[in-house]
């Protein structure tokens, strides 16, 4: 019997779909009491019941990562499957966020696509391989991590304290395509400093709002042509978004301060330091035209813990890439595309700070992630188990 058929016989599709539903039914967003703790315990219990070696390792506020291990016999490459256990809050969802219902070929609810469907598939993969009796040469890990939607402390902890692998698959929704790169992410605050004065005598002040307007005009004319010269073949050019602006006290006062918050997406070769140097240059251009122009830059560290959010780029000559392409085609009958994630993912932490090649491959689409009717195709969750399982055998090697 071939490997695929052998793996298919180890589990009923219903089993992984009900696991995905169970994970959705346990809220693990930032407003849920204990956050990911309940879902992490539940998932660890499920793995243990199915004979998998699993531990809970607290990261912040006793909220634990789930670390499951399928020990290889030795001598093979080590693979890690990684998924985050937190979700964004339900916000204004128009369906029951925590039904976990299987209907019309989809699993429904918050986190079904981003990314409890993938976490269920990853956990099921270890169980399926264990049941198959296939002994791997290298180890296979599943790490279910906390707080990816906010600061990524969960994956930071894995990078710092192990386990270590030769490659990592992060199960963010990619419709089972191979996301082999994405931009890095930096949040920056620009503060323009003016001088307050009475609105009836505005010539005595320095209006920080109008100085900020000059800065924005300069930014929008100077920056895009420079960024376009740095376009990456897959990711495109670096980009920026003016996200938040605040300034002034009230209409009858000259604004003494104006703050702009910018989201800047980096391509390989850029760092937050190079991004800051470029913005300083634009500030310098404003100052050269206007001696009253005064601004300073600050990093906004709200979206990260300790590790910079650099770009992710998977090496095109890495053996896992060919293995996954072949495996996805074998399981789904469709050749997967090489794509780019629009957002930043934990894969970048493994790739940069962890020095471990990492890519993104998971069921579901980013188009519905965080959305009002989040759902994930059931067939893709089942196929993900087979893709992860076959790829693990091919990457880690068989012991017998
Ligand atoms: Zn996600």
> What is the CATH superfamily label of the largest domain?
Zn peptidases
Uncertain spans: none
CATH architecture tag of the largest domain: 3-Layer(aba) Sandwich
Order of helices and strands: HHHEEEEEHEHEEEHEEHEEHEHEEH
Beta content? 15-25%
Number of DSSP helices? Answer: 10
Large-scale geometry:
elongated
What do we call the CATH topology of the largest domain? Answer: Aminopeptidase
Largest sheet: 6 strands, mixed
Q: What's the CATH class of the largest domain, please? A: Alpha Beta
- Alpha-carbon distance between the termini? 16 Å
Number of domains: 2
Widest beta sheet: strand line-up: 1-2-6-3-7-15
Number of strands: 16
Search tags:
400 residues, alpha/beta, binds zinc ion, elongated, Alpha-Beta Plaits, 10 helices
